[in-house]
């Protein structure tokens, strides 16, 4: 019987990625990977809920993958976070970014960056179930209908 391996473990194994102390990652590097992981989670949900044209899938997805929504999600989650998770979020939120969102305030963009950093941190530390639980809880708290 084959042992189950996470995609992260398979990537590290198949592409010879070494172990790196997660504390050495910049908050913007965590947000970079967290943005992709959050996007993948939402895209997966959208596709699983209806096989339709790529254009319709994209339009539905961008309603959930944007700085304004992510800022609302992290605000709703703050009481759910551990001290460690809150610290990662704050590092991401306070990171000096040289880009801004098209349709969000600077404050919303920074909160969204913190949310993405948290998602990236949880993914890279192998806590995907915790990440998914937080995303699910945030979707419920914000009242999103994916």
Strand runs, count = 0
SS-derived structural category? mainly alpha
What is the count of distinct domains? 1
Strand content: under 5%
Q: Can you name the CATH architecture? A: Orthogonal Bundle
Number of helices: 7
Helical content, roughly?
55-70%
CATH class: Mainly Alpha
The stretches of 5 or more residues where confidence is low (pLDDT under 50) are none
Mean pLDDT: 92
Radius of gyration: 16 Å
Question: Could you explain how this protein is built, in words?
Answer:
By secondary structure, the protein is mainly α. The chain has a single domain, classed as Ribonuclease III domain (Ribonuclease iii, N-terminal Endonuclease Domain, Chain A, Orthogonal Bundle), CATH 1.10.1520.10. It is built from 7 helices and no strands. It has helices spanning 7-14, 27-48, 54-62, 67-77, 83-94, 106-124, 128-142. It is globular and about 40 Å long. It starts with 6 loop residues before the first helix and ends with a helix. The mean pLDDT is 92.
């Amino acid at each position: 019987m084959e042992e189950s391996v996470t995609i992260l473990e398979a990537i590290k194994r198949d592409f010879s990625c070494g172990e790196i102390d997660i504390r050495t990652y910049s908050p913007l590097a965590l947000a970079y990977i967290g943005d992709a992981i959050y996007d993948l989670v939402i895209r997966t949900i959208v596709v699983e809920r209806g096989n339709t044209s790529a254009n319709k899938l994209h339009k539905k997805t961008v309603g959930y993958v944007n700085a304004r929504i992510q800022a609302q999600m992290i605000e709703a989650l703050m009481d759910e976070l551990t001290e460690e998770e809150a610290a990662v979020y704050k590092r991401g939120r306070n990171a000096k970014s040289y880009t801004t969102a098209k349709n969000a305030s600077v404050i919303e963009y920074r909160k969204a960056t913190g949310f993405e950093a948290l998602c990236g941190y949880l993914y890279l530390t192998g806590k995907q179930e915790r990440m998914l639980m937080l995303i699910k809880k945030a979707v419920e708290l914000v009242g999103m209908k994916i």
